[in-house]
Structure formats: C-alpha cells, structure tokens
Amino acid sequence: MENAQNLQITPITIADEMKRSYLDYAMSVIVQRALPDVRDGLKPVHRRVLFAMRELGNEWNKPYKKSARVVGDVIGKYHPHGDSAVYNTMVRMAQDFSMRVPLIDGQGNFGSMDGDNAAAMRYTEARMAKATTALMTDLEKDTVDFRPNYDESLEEPTVLPARFPNLLVNGTAGIAVGMATNIPPHNLGEVIDATVHLVDNPEASVADLMQFVKGPDFPTGALMTGMRGMVSAYESGRGTVMMRARTEVEKLRENREAIIITEVPYQVNKAALVEKIADLYREKLVEGISDLRDESSRGEVRVVIELKRDAMADVVLNQLYRHTDLQTSFSFNMLAIDGGRPKLMGLKGILQAFLKHREEVITRRTKFELAKTRARAHILAGLATAVANIDEVIKLIRNAPDGAEAKVQLMAKAWAAASVKPLIELLGEEMDGDNYRLTDAQAQAILDLKLQRLTGLERDKIQDEAEQIKESIRYLISILASREVMLSILKDELKQVKEEFSTPRRTEVTLFGADLNMEDLIKPEEMVVTISTDGWVKRQPLSDYRAQRRGGKGKSVTNMKDDEELETLFVANTHRPLLFFTSTGQVHTRKVYELPLASAGARGKALVNFLSLEKDETVTRVLPVPSDKTTWSSLVALFATAKGIIRKTPLTAFNNVNSSGIKGISIDEGDSLVNVAITGENEGDVLLSSYEGKAVRFSVESLRTIASRAAYGVRGMELREGDYLVSMSVINAATPYVLTVTENGYGKRTAADDFPAKSRGTLGVIAIQTTERNGNVVASLPVGEGDEVILVTNDGQVIRTRSADISVIGRNTQGVTLFKVEGKTKVTSACVIPAAVLQQDGNAEEGEVPVEEGSNVVPFPAAVDADGAETEAEIADQETSDEEE
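The structure corresponding to this sequence follows.
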C-alpha cells in the first residue's frame, strides 16, 4: 500500500501517444532502413553487409566465402532483421545489371534480367568487389564515427569513408514512411570529373556540372532522352526522363526485315517484355509481327522480332513503344539523409555533401596519421639519443641490478642529444640545452632494443628513419594547415579511383519521345480506312487500291463474317486526326496511324481495342479533321441525321477530347447520325440526299451556329413517310459536279448548278431515278473533274475509278453502270479521293488510270461501255422533265 502511494501516474491522451509512437517509428524507418546516407550512398543494411565482409576478411583478393556465412555474421552482429532481406541486399549488390559498379563479387546464380531469382544462399559464394575497397579505405584510421551494435557487444561504422560519390554512381531506391527515394545510377568517370570541377570551381552551376554528367548511365545501357526533366532533376531533385531499348533493323531476305533488341531499359524484366510483345501479337494490338524469339546469351541481349512482308519497322516499333516497356520512364526523386535528416537534393547538393564528407575524412585521417607518426618519432628520438650515447647506455644497463632499475636510471640522466635536437624540437618537446631526458616509453624501447640494432648499419637506419619521419610530420602538418593542399589530395584520390574503376558510358543520350514527336517516325502516307458493321477497323495504303474502269467487278479488300457488312470507307493521311462519333452521341479521337495496318485479306481489329466504348455502343461516323488546330477557329462541323435534322457547331467545340470521349451530339430515339462534314462558317452549300432519290440544297450561311455539343439541331430536309436521309455533303466552287450512287451499282455525275439552292426544310428535287434497276440511293458526293471515286459493297468488294469516266447527265435519269454487282451484293458506301491527294499519292500520273499487271484495264471514253452500260445516246433517251417539289 505504501509503494502504491508513492507511484506517480501521468495521464496521456491516446491521440498524443499514437502520434509520438508513430513519429518515432517513421523516423526509425526513414533514417535506419529505407533512405541512403548522402555521404557514402548506402543504406544501413548495405553498409553492414560490406563491413561484416571486411571484418570476416572476405576481401576481393581472398577466396570466396559462402553467402550464408556472410548473412549469418550480418544478422548475428549488426542487423537484427530477417536473413532473406540481407541476402537480397547481397544479391542486388552483385548484379551487374542492377548496379553500375557492383560492390560484391558473386560466384554462382545471382539472378538474371529475366526476373530469375538467385540461388539459395547456401549455394552461392561471395566476396567484396575490388571497387568496394574505395569505399572502405582508411576505415581503420578514425576517419568516421563508430557506434555500438544492437546488443552493444561490438561497434559498427555510422558511415564509410567512400572515396567516390557512390550515391550517384550506383543510385538507390527505397520507400520509407511518407516519403521515397529513387536515384538512377551514373557513370563513375563523369561523376568524378564533375566532382573535381566543383572542387576547382565552388560556384559552378548545375549547367556547368552537366557538361560532365551527361545524364544517368544505366548498367543495361539503352537510350535515354528528356533533357527538360533531367535539368529539373539535377536542379531540384525531381524530374523524369524517358528510356528506350536499343534496337536495330536487320534485313533477313528480300522484302523481309527483323527488329533486333540489343539493350533494354533499366529495371525492365526482359522475359516479361518478350511475353508482353507475344500477347500483343496474339491479341492483334500490334500488327506486322510474324515471329518472335529470344536469342539472348549470358551477358548479351538479343531479342529478334521478325516482321511480315508488308510491315514497316518504324510503325511496329512505334506500337511497341506505346504498349510495352520497350519505352518507359524513370522518375528522379533524389532524397537522402543529410545531417541526420531526409533532404531532397540536386546534383550540386549531393556533390557538395560528398566533398564535405571527404574533407572531414582526410582531416581525421591526417590527424590520426600525425598522432601515430608523432608517437613513432618520439620513440625514434629516444633510440637516436641512446645510439648517440651508446657506450654510456650499455654500461648503465650492464651495471643495473634489474630492468626496472635500469629504466629509472635511463630516465634520471640527462643525455647529450645534439644530433637529435631537430626532431625533438619538431615534436615540441623540451630540452636542457643540448641535453634530453628520456620518457618511460623511450626508456622501455631502449631496453627492448636488440643487440643487432647496435651495429653501425642498424644505427644508420635509425638515423635515416628519424630523418624520414621528420618529413612526414612536416607534410601532415601542412595538410592540416592548408585547405588547398587538402583539396589537392582529395582530387588526386578521386582521379586514382577514376583511373582504376571507370568504364565507358553505356546509356546513350539521344533525341526521341519527349524531344522528338512520335509522329516523326510515321511516314506521311494516304490511307484507306474501312470499318465494318461489327466495328472492325483497318487501314491500307491507297496504292493498294488500283484504279479500274467503271462497270468492273472490283476486288475484295477485307475478310468478313457472314452477317457482317462493310459500312464506312474514307481516305486520310496517316497523320490526320479522326473524330469517331458513336451511336450514343459520344466523340472519341485517334490518329490514322494508330489504327491497325492490315492487308487486303485481313479483317482488321475491333474498335473497342482503341476507343472506350460502352456495351452495345457502336461507331456510326468518322470525321477526318485538320492536323493544324490553329485553323479550327474558322471552321464548323455539320451534322446530319437520318430524319433530316442538321446542326452547325464550331469545330473548336471538339478541341479537347479526353481518353473516355466527350458528348458530341444529341440524337432523338429512333434517329441516327448519317454524316459529319467540315466547312468554313459561311462557305459553300449543303446538299442533303435521301434514300428515295430526292435532294435539297441550301447555303451553309443560312444555318445558325449552335455552340452547344448537346444540342439537337434544326430540320434540314422534309422527308416523306418511309424515306430517310442517306447523305450530306458540302458543295463549293472546287466541286462542279454531284456524283449520285445507288445500291445496285449505278450512278451518274450531274452539274451542281442543276440543283437549285432553296430554303432548308423542303422536300427538294429529284436527284436520280430510283427504279428497280437502280435501287435506292446510298450517297451523293460533290466531285471535281480530276477526282477519283471509291465504291464499296456490303461483302467487302471495292472499285476505284476516275470521276471523269462517269457520264455527266441530268437529274431525272437513271445513270450508268459504275460497279457490276450480282445477287444480294449491294453498294453500301462511296468516298471521293480529291485530285490534290492523288498528286501526293503518285498512283496516277497525268490523269491516266494505272493498269494493274496482268489485267485488261485500259483508259476509255465515257460513251464506250464493254460491260453493257448505257451509251450517251441511250442516256439521252432516258431524260424526262424534272419533277420539283
């Protein structure tokens, strides 16, 4: 009871206790486990492993020892944690693909770039690497502080002397509590050159230091770019650079190439990379690959990607860079312990901290050596004094009753020491004139002197050593007295490390990715893009579609399922942005080169792999837009629906389309988007065409601009029951004709002036006779004399023909044969290739239709039709009076 009354109880709130305890834990993790010391670039576990190996005598020039032996010493003496953590640390320090300058020389299986784990510690052997001696040199000379180990039975260093900036050379990564570090490895020679420059020029800027440190130098080599991110990292400690595998293209045989990967980005698992490329090929996300194999051997990377005959290496590489770790980033977060606290540091800050540490190490080493040299000089002064008085010393010792008495008598007498006076004065010891009294240590050294040391030669050696040690003392004192001398030694030691351990740079700093637009890798080329009703898309070079005369059977350009039809076809450049409009009114964007390149017999790839589409959402229309967005402010997008609704919206409303798409148009239930076109805000006339062959023309200016993307629009054409809109286009001075195409493969050109401009919302005029022979209308397109036309059928047959070969006849006629179709085959779509595009494509010269090899296709006049189409005379007989409404 009495003891209980003496107890003092201090109330503590649980919140305060949790806060204090958590902060203690956090600081312990930060300082003692996760973050490296800026001075030697090591975390405590790395430092303890290396120190334990040194204490074990496991030096670079000694036999290997079992890794389990080292791990046992580390966890038993210095690191009270799990053995797997210690062994994993050893493994990483031995991997030449993880560290730029490995600190451990391993023997056995220490893992691989393929993610293979190291063998168990009982199977592997290790010793310190030779370069590690540069971190440990002078450790025994009181250069750093020591502290008790976890059970206070031994001592361990708080930091290593480190003769080179290991934090930058080998880098590090770690996650603490509330903070993390990620420092890339660098080239030893470059870092030392920058350090020496900073010694000579303390006011040097980061830009000055970057003249030497070109950037990270990863042990796996590869390529790197991102100068802006690199400058930011070296100035502030944070920044990002891009890494890309080193590749080359080899020609295998005629028309066949292979991409060879010889170096991969840092910390990329090579086996996982190869597997990812194989998955992309199987899923058809990356087209053009015919074979993939890993031919790597120990110490050499060689991954072979064989390409298909029609594949472009640059295009395949561009897709691999986007979808795999063949290109990845490295984010600098240069956080380290400086003065016991975590600190975000730039390049100059890290080097300054290292130089400060080295100055302290050299100062402490010099003081240690000076004290040791002084102690030896003190003994030599006594020995030299005894040698100078050798006869008297021998007589004294011989007559003394025992050693203790001899020591007393040696110390009691003042000995003549004129010859030793310079050394004694250098030591700062007192003399009585030319006489000198011996100390206890000196007297004991004289008594311990062997008789052979009294010979003339040995006496001369004592004098010579005394002279040498005087020079050593003066030199050591000069180091402590002059910072310039100290810095000169510091630079010499750095240069020695560079000379012995520096190797050429492996990572090449180049331009790509962030510094070079990825589109620069894509050849500008006109492509024909096709989309099926099932949502499969592909692109083919326009040159694959050879021009034929009208009335032919065309050729197949895709492989489709039984119920699938080819719905959309258009021509656009590889660099052209596309706006994809879906059945729900959403808008997505991609560029043409991002769509899969496929051959004529291929089906392509589903759009859901490229666009964020919801279940049952389909792409209804695609709009190529100008690549230069600065021109968008003067342009508008025209939308037309099957029910005849039209809307004019500024193109800038679609300036920022995010990855999940944006709302593009509101459509009534039961209605659908027919087409989208681009024109100047008040330029040209709109031409709307219906399924039953009616057309209405009115000016773009008559439409009110609606800024909202969610608006519905206004009525553009009055439609009779059962009729619906099939086409919307813009007529201007460059398109003097209107090409009307029907589903049974017939069509004609009609002068645009034959379509009178009226008010919107009317029934319009007859554009073509929709007879049983013709079928109904699928498209009405404005064309010029030098344009070409591509027609496509529901079963994937395509024909390309010249506009000039199609007869120009009146509106109220049936037209001529454009595409010979049979059975259930119907023409479903048509598009125009402008003359300007044809000139760039080079497929047609001087207006001539190229002839496919082995075919009987030749240029011909419009009035001649070998396939049975009507002649001009027959066409004239069909014309009747127009029936305007």
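The chain is about 30% helix and 25% strand.
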